[in-house]
Amino acid sequence: MKIAVAAEGDKVSLHFGKCPEFRVFHVEGGKVQALETLRNPGDEPGAIPDFLAEHGVSVVIAGGMGPRAEKLLKDSGIQVVTGVLGPVEDIVKSYLEGSL
Predict the structure, then answer these.
(1) Which residues of the chain have pLDDT under 70?
(2) CATH label of the domain that carries residue 18
(3) Paired sense of beta strands 2-8 and 59-61, if any
(4) Distance between CA 100 and CA 85 in Å, rounded?
(5) CB 22 within 8 Å of CB 7
(6) Where in the sequence is the domain holding 73, given as residue range(s)?
(7) Are strands 31-39 and 59-61 parallel, antiparallel or unpaired?
């Protein structure tokens, strides 16, 4: 599973489409095995959901997200978690523990 977090520095970004980058956590057996950083490809309609789907992301975590982006992600089979703020690594840990 790959979890992408909309990030600004080490914090979850308030806005999915405006974040500078996505931190992508590669998870196997409930544990993070690798981490990669992907630059935001731009906020053109539909570009980011397609970009994340092409990278095999299965979960997206962000502070906030517009309804169109959320629908496009869900239509691609990607789970969306919004309303989340805090340090990126703590948020991923909470998600994996089922407490997010």
Answers:
(1) 43
(2) 3.30.420.130
(3) parallel
(4) 11
(5) yes
(6) 2-97
(7) unpaired
- Count up the domains in the chain and report the number: 1
Global model pTM greater than 0.85: yes
Residue type, 99: S
Residues making up the chain, counted from first to last: 100
Tens-digit pLDDT profile for residues 25-47: 999 999 999 999 999 998 677 89
- Token digits of residue 81: 């978690």
Q: Are 82 and 62 in contact (CB under 8 A)?
A: yes
SS3 track for the chain: CEEEEEEECCEECCCHHHCCEEEEEEEECCEEEEEEEEECCCCCCCHHHHHHHHCCCCEEECCCCCHHHHHHHHHCCCEEECCCCCEHHHHHHHHHHCCC
